[in-house]
Amino acid sequence: MTATAGSVTNAGPARTVQAKQSLGARITEKLSGGLVRVFLVLVGLFWLVPTIGLLLASLRSPQDMSASGWWTVFTKPSQFTFDSYQKLLENSDITTSLWNTVLITVPATVLVVVVGSLAGYAFAWMEFPGRDWWFLGVVSLLVVPVQVALIPIAELFGKIGLFGTIFGVILFHTGFGLPFAVFLLRNFFAEIPRELLEAARLDGAGELRLFARVVMPLGGPAIASLGIFQFLWVWNDMLVALVFTKSGTQPITVALQTQVRQFGNNVDVLAPGAFISMVIPLAVFFAFQRQFVSGVMAGAVK
Questions:
Q1: How far apart are CA 273 and CA 55, in angstroms?
Q2: How far is CA 159 from each of CA 104, 129, 155, rounded to the nearest angstrom?
Q3: Which residues have C-beta within 8 Å of that of residue 244, sequence separation ≥ 6?
Q4: Which residues, including other chains, have CB under 8 Å from residue 132's CB and lie 6 or more apart?
Q5: What is the pLDDT of residues 198-247, one digit of tens each?
């Protein structure tokens, strides 16, 4: 009889707590399931609408685009055609600028990742005079706006013969990408357990071997995140390209802007060109999204 009374007594507070649960908490519990996922899927689809619209527009003729919106292809599939992409491939300005974009973006990304990784490891685990002051100097460069350096660097490149060249644009993007790269990777590398590095040194590993065999594999997520950031920034850049490039070295962003200014009605070239310019960085991001998320979450986990 006593045990039964005790059970009733203990059940009473539990029911009281459940009864006192706020309405907001109960709504949150119900919404934390499938409804939130459906909402997020709808948000993602809504975010993709401009990309889908641009793709469908690039697959229509100029006459159809001037007559109706891109959404009419769902009722008239016969509008689909690849003539615009054929004209794009025949446009030497667009194809050359697309190749120039690759020549600018890939080296600028690789240089920032390689140099930033080496510098980040040096600032994290190597002892040398003034290391902390040097690191503070590098971090302080993060506050320098790109717009402030455009004219001085353009004058410098003009004096040494780099103005208007692809190599000059690569140097500019590399220089302004390195402070963030060093800051990000140094903080990530500093979280690597010291015991792991000391064990590798006891096994006879030098600094370069230690960096290549231990630090680089462990820092893969952060390096991938940095590479994605740098690739997207350089690929989509227009300001630096407008200042530092000339005809023949312009990337796709400047070439498309020039096409709009010169031939305002050539949407049959602009639509596929803009779609290709946008879909390539999207493909790179989705290809490395798992590493990107791991790199972003690594700092929070540690």
A1: 10
A2: 21, 34, 6
A3: 154, 157, 163, 164, 168, 169, 172
A4: none
A5: 888 887 777 788 888 888 888 888 888 888 889 999 998 988 998 898 88
pTM higher than 0.85 for the full model? no
Contact 197, 127 (CB under 8 A): no
> Of the ranges 29-33, 129-133, 141-145, 174-178, which one carries the lowest mean pLDDT score?
29-33
Here the tokens at position 260 are 């709009």
| Among candidate residues 294, 255, 286, the one with its CA nearest the CA of residue 272 | 255
**In b/e form, how buried is each residue of 32-69, taking b as 16+ CB within 10 angstroms?**
eeeeeeeeeeeeeeeeeeeeeebbbbbbbebebbeeee
Q: Which residue has the higher pLDDT, 220 or 5?
A: 220
* Spatial CA neighbour of 122 closest among 112, 111, 110, 131: 131
Neighbouring-strand partners of residue 245: 164
Rounded Cα distance between 24 and 30, Å, is: 10
How many whole angstroms separate alpha carbon 295 and alpha carbon 220? 8
Residue 91 phi, psi dihedral angles, 5° rounding: -90, 105
Q: Rounded to the nearest 5 degrees, what angle is found at the Cα of 296, between the Cα atoms of 201 and 138? A: 65
Within 74-206, strands assigned E span none
Under a CB-based contact definition with an 8 Å cutoff, are residues 295 and 221 in contact? yes
Compute the distance between CA of residue 63 and CA of residue 81 in angstroms, rounded to an integer. Answer: 12
For the record, the structure tokens of 52 come out as 């889908």
Q: Residue 300: its pLDDT value, please? A: 44
Helix, strand or coil for residue 245? strand
252 closest CA partner among 87, 62, 105: 105
- Rounded Cα gap, residues 159 and 302, in angstroms: 48
Tallying the residues shown for the chain, one arrives at 302
- Rounded to whole angstroms, how far apart are CA atoms 276 and 282? 10
